[in-house]
Design goal:
heterodimer; A: four-stranded antiparallel beta sheet; two-stranded parallel ribbon; 0% helix; B: mainly beta; glutathione-dependent formaldehyde- activating enzyme (gfa); eight-stranded mixed beta sheet; 11 strands
Chain lengths: 86, 135
Amino acid sequence: MKSGDLRVKGTPKSYTRIADSGKPMTGIFCPNCGVRIYNIPSVDHDVYLLKPGTLDDTGGLRPERMVWTRRKQPWLDIPNDIEMVE
Amino acid sequence: MPAPYSGGCQCGQVRYDLTGEPLHLIACHCSECQNQSGSAFGMSMIVKTDDLKITGVTKSYTRTADSGNKNTGVFCPDCGVRIHNTPHYIDGVLTLKPGTLDDTSWLRPTAMLWTKSAQGWIPVPDGVKDIEGQP
């Protein structure tokens, strides 16, 4: 999502880690319950990666792609119309 | 793969060892598990309280479920990752968040709970019990 489209209230805390790619990724979370709201990738400052399970209504969500499937837990079946990227 | 199992939070400040075998493993699609995980569902591994040895500093957050039962979430204050929940209504067990284990390849849930509030794109695998609400 575009970073300009997200308006956050409250006082989130942040945590930055270096991904395997060598690029930093910053997680923004609630300091009271720990729930991650979004991540900020360093590669593109105009987008945020919102954690969509935090939406009040998650009923319409359907991912178009599943990535890192080689690390996936093997019991989970993926529908045929979702692209898998190893 | 026999115990012990090791795991921890994303930043590594909190680490743990699970010294006994888990009692149950379930995947839960309730709205609270979606909210807590930020994802499509949460996973809970029921373990004996005495089997979980945690090192590092944790913070906790207690909420009251719709049922009136209280549940305390324990998480890393530095990166926010939830390590386990402590149900107040059952003695002697914790629900570990198994995605925090160092090796998650052996996990096999036996049931999917609250499938009536599931996002709908995840099939219930063969051999996994489909439970619409609270068991």
